[in-house]
Amino acid sequence: MTTTLTVITEEKLKHLNDLEPGESGVIDCLHFDDDYRQRLYSMGLRCNQTVTCIRKAVWGGPIHVTVGSTDLFLRLKEASLICLK
Predict the structure, then answer these.
(1) How far apart (Å, rounded) are the C-alpha atoms in residues 25 and 7?
(2) Contact criterion met (CB below 8 Å) for 73 and 64
(3) What percent of the chain has pLDDT over 90?
(4) What is the distance between the alpha carbons of residues 29 and 27, in angstroms, rounded to a whole number?
(5) pLDDT at 10
């Protein structure tokens, strides 16, 4: 009896909180309720927008990102709900 091991390579979804300072990504989707999503849209966080990580605070603090000409600080929990391409 021969057993064949199949390796399935699955591309790991990247989230905004995975970016290191200096890295950029393109927003794919936002996993928030409609009201909060609308608030983020008004600050420039929309699908297909390029976002750049400026810095990350220590001890699980907020992440500083730039979208266009807007600087934002987001909690890591919120950043983990923003998927990147």
Answers:
(1) 28
(2) yes
(3) 78
(4) 6
(5) 40
The CATH number of the domain covering residues in 14-84:
2.30.30.90
- The sheet that has 14-15: what strands, in order across it? 14-15, 82-84, 24-30, 50-56, 63-67, 70-74
Q: Is the per-residue pLDDT at 71 higher than 90?
A: yes
Q: With contact defined as beta carbons under 8 Å apart, do 9 and 31 qualify? A: no
Tokens of 81: 């709900």
Q: Tokens 């950043």 map to which residue? A: 79
CA distance 75 to 54: 14
- Write down the pTM of the prediction: 0.80
Give the model confidence (pLDDT) of 1-33 as tens digits.
Answer: 555 444 433 456 799 999 999 999 999 999 999
